[in-house]
Design brief:
Layout lengths: L2 E2 L5 H10 L6 H11 L13 H10 E2 L4 E7 L5 E6 L5 E8 L4 E4 L3 E3 L8 H4 L2 E4 L2 H17 L7 E6 L9 H11 L13 E5 L3 H10 L3 E5 L5 H7 L2 H4 L2 H10 L8 E7 L7 H11 L4 E7 L13 H13 L3 E4 L21
Parallel strand pairs: 1-2, 6-9, 9-10, 10-11, 11-12, 12-13, 13-14
Antiparallel strand pairs: 3-4, 4-5, 5-6, 7-8
Helix pairs in contact: 1-2, 5-6, 7-10, 11-12
This protein binds S-adenosyl-L-homocysteine.
S-adenosyl-L-homocysteine binds next to strand 10 and strand 12.
């Protein structure tokens, strides 16, 4: 069966070509067609020669994901529901910013982390996404922009904050990041504009720092082990102390900061004392805090704190010189906001 060419790194494609007596630099040309010029099929690759195009067509598919549904929020955020080849589903969210777009991509079908506040967790874990499935979310979103008459490179930022735990699909994550941040032949994203968010898979945090220059975001969500374990079972395995140590040791450029996401849930983790503890925990780190007032979804009892509580919590951080913002939730009217992705519960 034909393989998906989007599963290949440039080195692997070069090797594949070389094995068939084709000069390996052709891999770079092919990559440019796929990722920079957004080619839809091999016939567009006019500088390759007919024979090579034929070989590629015989052995590879160059395809798009099946877009089953697109929803557009009042704030123009778009959520895409993709059907994968095995019939499972994932979602990606395209978020318009002032002068660019950010794409929130999924890394797994479902998620095994079982965070109590997150809708994705409800459906359990199905499987890891392949490299082509990760990469296609980005390539296809750029097609959607082209179809709207918008410059595809204006999609310049990626956050791995969709469905799944990216660091639990580590190998495919790293391979995808290689293609995404390849500026010569790949998708041309600056690593500074790519963020990988994790629930706290401690050993993989240092790996990520050693192997890439992308930004790290950590879903912290609580300041003591008891609360965090209740909200995020992964905390049993990797408690706060280990997590914060891994963050302290995370290798990054001198002026970079780790983003700590903190969902504010009424009566659970939103007290002044929690805010003070948060400052104490994070002040030894190069950190910034994204407060996310809990996004409600059906069947979950947690509540969002009122506006005053959110502002007091934020003020405590700011008064103590923490960099902190309240993340504006986009797309919550179409269940596209943080923690609301369910992809028809996958099947
Ligand atoms: N598994 C990774 C990537 C998913 S990111 C991680 O946990 O970081 C999804 C983000 O949305 C996380 O920061 C999570 O804390 C947040 N989130 C999940 N459910 C939410 C909800 N109901 N309301 C607000 N934020 C939520």
């Amino acid at each position: 069966m034909a393989e998906n060419i989007l599963d290949y790194t440039r080195d692997e494609l070069a090797q594949w070509l070389e094995n068939r007596g084709v000069r390996p630099f052709r891999a770079g040309q092919i990559f440019k067609w796929i990722y920079l010029r957004q080619a839809r099929d091999f016939d567009e690759m006019t500088d390759l020669g007919k024979e090579l195009r034929g070989t590629l067509k015989e052995n590879f598919v160059l395809s798009r994901l099946v877009l089953e549904e697109k929803q557009v929020s009042k704030d123009t955020t778009e959520k895409y529901l993709f059907r994968l080849e095995d019939g499972t589903h994932i979602e990606s969210v395209l978020i318009p910013e002032k002068d660019h777009f950010t794409l929130c991509v999924s890394s797994q079908v479902g998620c095994a982390m079982d965070c109590q506040f997150c809708l994705t967790a409800r459906g359990g874990f199905v499987r890891n996404l392949t490299v082509s499935e990760i990469i296609s979310q980005v390539r296809d979103a750029r097609f959607f922009l082209i179809e709207r008459g918008i410059e595809p490179l204006s999609l310049s930022n990626i956050v791995f904050m969709g469905m799944g735990e990216p660091l639990a699909n580590y190998e495919n994550l790293i391979r995808s990041l290689g293609i995404i941040t390849d500026t010569d032949f790949g998708m041309k994203f600056s690593p500074r504009r790519v963020t990988v968010s994790t629930s706290g898979l401690v050993p993989r945090i240092s790996d990520l720092g050693n192997q890439t220059d992308v930004n790290l975001a950590v879903s912290l969500n609580a300041v003591d082990d008891k609360t965090r374990t209740r909200l995020m079972p992964i905390n049993k395995k990797y408690p706060l102390k280990d997590l914060l140590r891994a963050c302290k040791d995370f290798k990054m450029k001198p002026r970079n900061k780790i983003t700590f996401e903190y969902i504010l849930i009424r009566g659970v983790n939103d007290s002044d004392k929690d805010a003070q503890t948060l400052v104490r925990l994070l002040s030894p780190l190069r950190a910034k805090v994204n407060l996310i007032p809990f996004n409600q979804h059906p069947g979950c009892d947690f509540k969002r704190p009122d506006k005053e509580r959110v502002s007091s919590f934020l003020q405590i951080l700011l008064d103590r010189d923490m960099t902190a913002i309240v993340r504006k939730s986009k797309g919550d009217d179409i269940l596209a906001a943080c923690g609301q992705l369910k992809a028809k519960m996958f099947g």
